[in-house]
């Protein structure tokens, strides 16, 4: 009798364990499906593939986050301008420190059709200062929204591309104003290079957030993007929050002997 009861107990325990394993796999599969559904892809329209490749070539020429962006296909062009367009960021062009003191204006031009998903998404804009050996955070704005009243749409015809009579979808340009539309995670600080340590690459990255409101976990310090690990940068920070890059642009600057005695 005792043996029978023990056998029954072990059978019940084994059954419960099997059920828990099946449930675990089930919930894991559900969670993976949810994560997959959150991942939004923006396939580049064939008419814009050459422009997308030009952006990628510019990033590779500058050695910008090559490991992080090894599968990145730019789905649009990120425009960054200072002083109402007087100084425009153009894939690695040189701009003096004195010309980037104020916050820039930022806009995004798509290589894919306008969608409800993009209009209603949340976005992050990060600015990182890259040297040969390290990175530091210059600014981070999170929870940015698209200003739906100021979305400029147009067909392929008026985007200076070849006509495509079968393409009726609208492509678009939209501006982002971090001061009004976002939470400031790291206040903007322009480059302030006080030593002759070579060329700095100031990289602007527009990310799509995987969920609505990002948690406001401020960086303890700007160097190495809040880490004590040398070489830690924006790519590690973005991966932690599962951010998806959709637009990049950068300029270069240097000390110019402005803030130190030669």
TrEMBL record:
It comes from the Eukaryota. Keywords: Signal. Residues 1-24 form the signal peptide. The keyword tRNA processing does not apply. InterPro entries: PEBP-like_sf, PEBP_euk. PANTHER family: PHOSPHATIDYLETHANOLAMINE-BINDING PROTEIN, PHOSPHATIDYLETHANOLAMINE-BINDING PROTEIN 4. This is PEBP-like protein. It comes from Cyberlindnera jadinii (strain ATCC 18201 / CBS 1600 / BCRC 20928 / JCM 3617 / NBRC 0987 / NRRL Y-1542).
